[in-house]
Design brief:
Blueprint (H helix, E strand, L loop, with lengths): L3 E5 L19 H17 L3 E5 L15 E3 L4 E3 L10 H10 L5 E3 L11 E4 L2 E6 L5 H13 L3 E6 L6 H4 E5 L2 E4 L13 E4 L11 E3 L2 E5 L3 H8 L4 E5 L2 H4 L10 E2 L1
Parallel strand pairs: 1-2, 4-5, 7-8, 10-11, 13-14
Antiparallel strand pairs: 1-15, 3-4, 6-7, 9-10, 12-13
Bound molecules: citrulline.
Length: 253
């Protein structure tokens, strides 16, 4: 069970963040509105939501998931893999200090972003991406081991982050798209294969008894409903334009 979440409002410089989507410039007011609905959804999932104020120094700072890996007994502050985002983790670290006795750090030359880390029961998958390097993954592996968790690395081919293309819904069920549909590592799970045209929605998010799903992906919605999950649909268009999905907008612990 998750009890709380940290989020950060999109800042006025949101449109200047990193994007490869080719979906055009996000509308700031609409992004703020979508973000407030996201916060409401987290509250509906019974989370206490800690909302940080916007930070114009970092256009991508609404994507807080990348700044930390959080579990019950520890938080790991990451070292983000792109120059324009380095420093976002500082305020998050200060906040997490109030909740955790054990705070660990990924240190240079290691880089790691939370979007590349997926927990499946007591095992962690760590994506090796443009943002997470082998050294960062090794540091995380060592930290996880010291807390009794196993982990393995997954080399990414096309996606930005591991969780862009795969997410864990619980009960041994994974949503998978693109390069993850046939990977050996994930064959032992129940796979929900997401249509190419709905790949964005692979980054859906299980929180307590709900699954948050982006609006506008009817096939995926049906596939998830078949497993009897309770669904909350959210408009995500402005975040999609900036390569961000549902998980990226919060740290849940
Ligand atoms: C970036 O490129 O860093 C942001 N525009 C999007 C980050 C998305 N985060 C995530 O998938 N965890």
């Amino acid at each position: 069970m998750f009890k709380q979440a940290i989020v950060r409002k999109p800042c006025k410089k949101f449109q200047f963040g990193i994007s490869t989507s080719n979906l055009g410039k996000p509308d700031y007011q609409r992004a703020l509105h979508q973000h407030s609905k996201y916060v409401e959804a987290l509250q509906k999932c019974n989370l206490l939501v800690i909302e940080l104020i916007e930070d114009d120094r970092y256009p991508d700072s609404t994507f807080v998931e990348d700044t930390a890996v959080v579990d019950k007994e520890f938080a790991v502050i990451t070292n983000l893999g792109v120059e324009s985002r380095k420093g976002e983790e500082i305020e998050i670290s200060e906040k997490l200090n109030g909740f955790y006795e054990n705070i660990e750090f990924i240190k240079a030359p290691g880089t790691l972003e939370g979007g590349d880390v997926m927990k499946v029961e007591d095992h962690y998958y760590i994506g090796l991406s443009d943002r997470t390097n082998n050294e960062g993954a090794n540091q995380l592996t060592k930290i996880l081991k010291s807390y009794g968790y196993s982990s393995s690395k997954v080399l990414l081919k096309n996606v930005l982050h591991l969780k862009t293309g795969i997410s864990y819904l619980g009960d041994s069920i994974l949503l998978v798209s693109g390069e993850f549909k046939d990977r050996f590592d994930f064959k032992k799970y129940k796979l929900i294969k997401v249509l190419y045209s709905e790949a964005y929605a692979t980054n859906s998010l299980r929180i307590n008894e709900y699954v948050l799903v982006p609006k506008g992906y009817p096939n995926l919605k049906k596939q998830i409903q078949n497993y009897n999950f309770k669904i909350l649909e959210l408009e995500m268009s402005e975040f999609e334009k900036m390569d961000g999905g549902l998980s990226c907008l919060s740290l849940r612990f």
